[in-house]
Amino acid sequence: ENLSQKYPDILSRIASFSAKDADGNPKAKSFVLDCEAVAWDRQAGKILPFQVLSTRKRKNTTDEEIAVQVCVFAFDLLYLNGEALTRKTLRERRALLYEHFEAQDGRFAFAVHSEGSNVNDIQEFLDASIVDACEGLMVKTLDRDASYEPSRRSRNWLKVKKDYLSGVGDSLDLVVIGGYIGKGKRTGWYGGYLLACYDEESEAYQAICKVGTGFSEENLKLFSETLQSHIISGPRSYYEWTDHPLVRPDVWFEPKLVFEIKAADLSLSPVHKAAYGHIDSEKGISLRFPRFLRLRDDKAPEQATNATQVADLFRAQNRHGDDKDKD
User: Fold this and answer.
1) Distance of CA 203 to the CA centre of its chain
2) Are 174 and 259 spatial neighbours (Cβ–Cβ below 8 Å)?
3) Could you tell me if 121 and 114 are in contact, meaning their C-beta atoms sit under 8 angstroms apart?
4) pLDDT of residue 327
5) For the chain, which domains are there?
6) What pLDDT is recorded for position 165?
7) How far is CA 181 from the centre of its chain?
8) 86: which strand partners?
9) 221-228, Cβ contacts within 8 angstroms, sequence gap of 24 or more
């Protein structure tokens, strides 16, 4: 669909998006950008809800008549100065994008990106995107199998939306048994926690996931201070966990705090021990994209979500998925 008439303001300034060479000439003489136009509050310097953009007139609009201002966010560069770039890696295309274009305050910007190698990196970036009023993330391969494939689905791209965080119908109440030293803005606090469900049969706490998203600065400060008096030298004998680099916490705690957690879904895990043997004889259950909701100071650790309940949630989720497939 050609939407040129709806965005005369973008058309009038698109050539100015190009950076200039030493002689003042545009570096990008011909190009195809993968972009998104968003409604933009220039006074506050922030993105407005998508619904605001839909109120723009679709045609016969002049620059002077435009009530809803837009900012163009560039994700990718597909063609540059006569050369198709789709076979290049995302890292190469992005370098060319930054080299040949320059941001304009409130008019043209580069999509914010973060490089990560594990689920925790994605969780933290998703949390930040939600705070900034974004719908979610696109997770893409950077170097390997990182060509651009137009108009087709690819396993090398994964959409992660904030809506996915409400995937599990019921929240879980989980016990804090370990902590991870914070980095960057979280230096001086615990930046994440190892959580466990309670197995009533063995009276053990079974590790289920790490969580590092959903916390306010006040939460991080409060929990870090509260847990200082509950630090122990190592895991209790009744902690069931796997000594794996992705799981091993920096600090161990007595089971005192209970967090209410929401997750996108539950998955079988060769690492975590929650409900071990209930569904699979060699695997436990873990949470994907867990997010802190609140402290359950009304619950004792033994009243946390138990292993049987975790297994029941997993079964219910799979039944629901089967029903959707049948529809």
Assistant:
1) 34
2) yes
3) yes
4) 33
5) 4-163 (3.30.470.30), 168-326 (2.40.50.140)
6) 55
7) 20
8) none
9) 221/189, 223/176, 223/189, 223/190, 223/193, 223/257, 223/295, 224/179, 224/188, 224/189, 224/190, 226/256, 226/257, 227/176, 227/179, 227/190, 227/251, 227/253, 227/256, 227/257
Q: Is the dihedral of CA 288, 289, 293, 294 positive or negative?
A: positive
Range 237-276 burial, b when 16+ CB lie within 10 A, else e: eebbbeeeeebebebbbebebbbbbbbbbbeebeebbbbb
Q: H or E segment at 253?
A: strand 251-253
**Three-class SS of residue 31?**
strand
Give residue 34's Cα distance to chain centre: 21
- Look up the pTM and report it: 0.57
Place of tokens 């060479």: 21
Residue 266 predicted with pLDDT over 70: yes
Q: Cα 226 from chain centroid?
A: 28
pLDDT of residue 133: 67
DSSP codes joined into one string, 150-192: TTS--TTEEEEEGGGGG-SSS-EEEEEEEEEE--GGGTTSEEE
Side chain identity at residue 245, one-letter code:
P
Tokens 């370990």 map to which residue?
A: 178
**Beta-strand relationship, 108-110 and 70-80:** parallel
pLDDT confidence of residue 320: 54
3-state secondary structure of 147: coil
* Two tokens, residue 289: 């994209």
Per DSSP, what are the bridge partners of residue 53?
Answer: none
